[in-house]
Amino acid sequence: MSHSNPIRALIVDDEPPARRHLARLLATEPDISVVGECRHGLEAVARIEGLRPDLVFLDIQMPEVDGFEVVARIGPEHMPAVIFVTAYDEHALRAFEVHALDYLLKPVSRERFHAAVARSRRIIGTPEVETHARALTGVAHGQARFTERISVRHRGETRLIDIGEIDYITAELNYARLHVGERSYLIRDTLNHLETTLDPSRFLRIHRSAIVQMDRVRTLTSRFQGDVTLMLRNGVRLKSGRSYRARIRAAF
Fold first, then answer.
1. Which CATH superfamily is domain 7-125 in?
2. Are 79 and 136 in contact (CB under 8 A)?
3. Each residue of 69-79: pLDDT tens digit?
4. Which fold has domain 135-251?
5. Number of Cβ atoms within 10 Å of the Cβ of 82
């Protein structure tokens, strides 16, 4: 769709370098005007309601009010077109699966940015914008609350791992390793963050460096010191931390 007036864009990200990077990229688009920048979700809600931009570059992972909650608070009738920006692959997949206009993974490349903007030009001003917003609002209200798939890089390709395939997850500094059968995949994420995205009826944090899928557990052995050893169906033994004993007992 052609636009006689400039597309009015709003940048929302709690990281100043990320906002500056997007602003520099947008400065190369002659038909897009940046009408404002927001540092957090609450500010974004106020600016979207006040400025009525055509397009929002919306960070997902923000303190207190995240990107999905911003969409929920605005509502589908008034939500402009959204291009999500995130450092986490599983967030990007979640946004893509519910038909967000597009998404950008940090660090945002110039090529990927231009492709997302080109798509936005075709959709802004059409009923499709509200369709996207309604789908996103459903996610924000919990219809797709927990991650169902995680993307991993393997031999130069991106693979989608269904949550049900994962046996357990371990921490490796600021990364996490997904253990899937005889394979394992290292992803750029932390266990603290993953724990918030996984269904707690299926996954249990048993140690500061381990999360297990509960239906993979065959036996539990308690030790005198308060530790618990979990034997998985595949023969792997995982030791719990003492502070996790109560939650393990409650789960099993």
1. Response regulator (3.40.50.2300)
2. yes
3. 888 788 877 88
4. OB fold (Dihydrolipoamide Acetyltransferase, E2P) (2.40.50)
5. 25
